[in-house]
Amino acid sequence: MPRLIMPALAMTSPQTSEIKGSKEFVKQSSLYQEFLAEREEILKHKWLESERLGYDIGFERALLDWIRKHRDAWRANRRAQLAAQGGAPVATFTPPAQPAAKK
After folding, report:
1. Any idea what DSSP says for residue 55?
2. In this predicted structure, what is the pLDDT of residue 101?
3. What is residue 10's predicted lDDT score, i.e. its pLDDT?
4. pTM for the full model?
5. How many other C-beta atoms are found inside a 10 Å radius of the C-beta of residue 56?
6. Which of 4, 15, 24, 62 could tie 46 with a disulfide, CB 3.0–4.6 Å?
7. Alpha-carbon gap, residue 75 to 73, rounded angstroms
């Protein structure tokens, strides 16, 4: 029985070009750059804390610990550095305040 072979789609199709352009746009966005910078700081924190404790604390624990202890100061410092360099303002998300827990 003969096998039918589907022709390969051209890599330069309009859809592929559009997706490639979207990916490049995202990679160049300031929000994505901030995400990468924060992620790098979290990974450094994970390494330092894991070394201090003598075992791998894992990404989630490092993330939560870094947010609680260092994120606000890091962001303020980063904004100041970018402003001094004349960089674009950093897009930030501030979650709405949580209602106080009922006792």
Report:
1. S
2. 64
3. 46
4. 0.61
5. 13
6. 62
7. 5
